[in-house]
Amino acid sequence: MRIPAHSVCTAIRDDIVAGVYKRGSRLTEEVLARRYGVSRVPVREALRTLEAEGFVVTRRHAGACVAEPTEQEAADLLEMRMLLEPLGAARAAQRRTEAHLKVLRGLVRLGQERARRGSSEDLRSLGGWFHETLAQACGSPSLTSMLTQLRHKIAWMYTVEAPNSPVESWAEHGAMVDAVARGDAERARALTALHAERATGAHRLRFSGAAERVRTSQHPVNMSGPRH
Description:
This is GntR family transcriptional regulator. By secondary structure, the protein is mainly alpha-helical. It is about 65% helix and about 5% strand. The protein has a two-stranded antiparallel ribbon. Strands 3-4 form a two-stranded antiparallel ribbon. The chain starts with a helix and ends in a 23-residue tail after the last strand.
């Protein structure tokens, strides 16, 4: 069975974000194909996609390598997110479906419950799902794709400190969903802008030597479907 290139792309991207491949390290088709248990064809396609996304660069005499973003490029990503997430929330207020609202409200309930309990690891995952769902609710595939790429790249370049008040953070999520549910685009935009601005201060660059250590996880692609 031929493994889809997008599954290979997801696996390589996840490993880049997780730090399995150091910034600047070579990515050879043969080694990647062996690692993920696929042929070189989907690996080649995946590397082209990752180059377009900015995770990979092609260098003369070296081939595909993990990109080495500058501090300015990393800072630009946070600024872009602060502009695009409020736009996505405003669009979601106009275009969301009842299914989107159901998921968002369910995530807020879980987040508020975990925040009261102090379950920080659960909150990180729930926060990611919340923002992913909000991006999907905007009704614009191109904007959703841009927001998804931003999340991946920011996760690659930054560590994020837990909020000082998780309960307050999830109250902000709840207010954003209320605005989206009412179709109040301007309030959804304003609340999301404030939330994004506060979250930006918790981001710390990973570009130190300690953060560059290679991890050794293995992720065969051809086992049980695409990874998220």
